[in-house]
Specification:
The protein is an alpha+beta fold and 334 residues long. It is built from 11 helices and 10 strands. It is elongated, with a radius of gyration of 23 Å. The N and C termini lie far apart (76 Å).
């Protein structure tokens, strides 16, 4: 029994000290990287806890670490998100919208043209969309190569005039900054709703990053599709006015989409591994009936895997029609 008590105390001290070190090192870290010197304070705290323990007070040692965690957590809350940083070029602008009844004018819709993942022609535009002309929504899943369960998810909306606009919930990186799932737990990155053309946000992933991309039609009524679109627009505007931090567990690409789905449908989306590991989010959508279920999941996946069509349609103005397997119109053929 005494051995178990010692092991439990040691585990609390080890995990608490590790969390404090990570929090001090990563919280608020930007392009300059982590702050290892700050993390040394965790060793000082650990030393104090060990001294207390050796004097015979296991509870006292645990109390020292718990108090340290509480103090660091309180300090973390003083680090505030900002919309004014030296952003990476592809994230330099944050989309915003003006809503006038059924008409939504979105500014800073991204429309980059890529030669590679690091070489592009930058472009943004403003466009007005009429929600009465919405024809559907598509759930997009992009599993990352080589990392179990990791993926990015997006939603695209189509309109009767042939336009498609994608909403992508992302980390807003600063210049020189790279994404870290661990850093995403410690207020290292802001959150952004990137709004863009499919020839940018989809083609970048399928044709240049060479990741698998799946494009699933959402099975929902026109009314729910409109509500989904407007809810994403409202969230985008709220983030533009009041920035928030990205959080790897609670506010990432998929958890934000889940909140939109739950607000505009009767579906109660469970928070399980398919949300935390969004490469399996299509399995969850399939189970909940949010995407078609007329065949086994693997058949549905194969049906909506778009990479071959995307590569064949690279650079074409009818890219969105082509990746859906639709015939080119006379004015959109290359």
């Amino acid at each position: 029994m005494r051995l178990l008590s010692h092991l439990a105390t040691g585990l609390v001290l080890l995990l608490g000290t590790a969390w404090i070190a990570l929090a001090l090192s990563l919280t608020g870290a930007g392009a300059e990287g982590s702050h290892p010197v700050r993390a040394l304070l965790a060793l000082v705290l650990a030393g104090a806890a060990v001294v207390v323990w050796r004097k015979g007070s296991r509870r006292g040692a645990v109390a020292v670490v718990v108090a340290g965690c509480a103090a660091v957590f309180g300090w973390m809350q003083t680090v505030k998100p900002s919309g004014e940083r030296d952003w990476a070029p592809d994230l330099a602008r944050a989309a915003r919208a003006e809503v006038d009844g059924p008409r939504v004018t979105i500014h800073d819709v991204r429309d980059f043209r890529y030669r590679s993942t690091t070489d592009w022609d930058a472009s943004w535009y403003s466009a007005t969309y009429d929600t009465r002309e919405l024809t559907g929504a598509w759930f997009i899943v992009e599993p990352f190569s080589g990392f179990y369960g990791a993926a990015h998810t997006m939603v695209s909306f189509g309109f009767s005039d042939g336009r498609y606009v994608v909403f992508s919930v992302e980390v807003r990186r600063e210049k020189g900054e790279t994404f870290s799932a661990v850093g995403g737990l410690f207020r290292q990155f802001e959150l952004i709703y990137v709004v863009g053309d499919e020839r940018d946000l989809v083609q970048l992933r399928s044709n240049h990053r060479k990741d698998d991309v799946y494009l699933y039609p959402v099975d929902a009524s026109k009314e729910r599709i409109v509500s989904f679109f407007l809810d994403m627009v409202a969230r985008m505007n709220a983030l533009h006015a009041r920035p928030e931090f990205y959080d790897t567990l609670t506010s990432n690409c998929t958890t934000n989409l889940v909140r939109h789905v739950e607000k505009v449908s009767d579906v109660d989306v469970p928070y399980d591994h398919r949300t935390l590991l969004p490469a399996y989010s299509d399995a969850l959508a399939y189970e909940l009936g949010l995407i078609e279920k007329d065949a086994p999941l693997e058949v549905v996946r194969a049906r909506h895997h778009i990479n071959a069509r995307a590569l064949a349609a690279e650079g074409r103005p009818d890219f969105s029609r082509a990746i859906r397997g639709l015939a080119a119109t006379a004015d959109s053929a290359p």
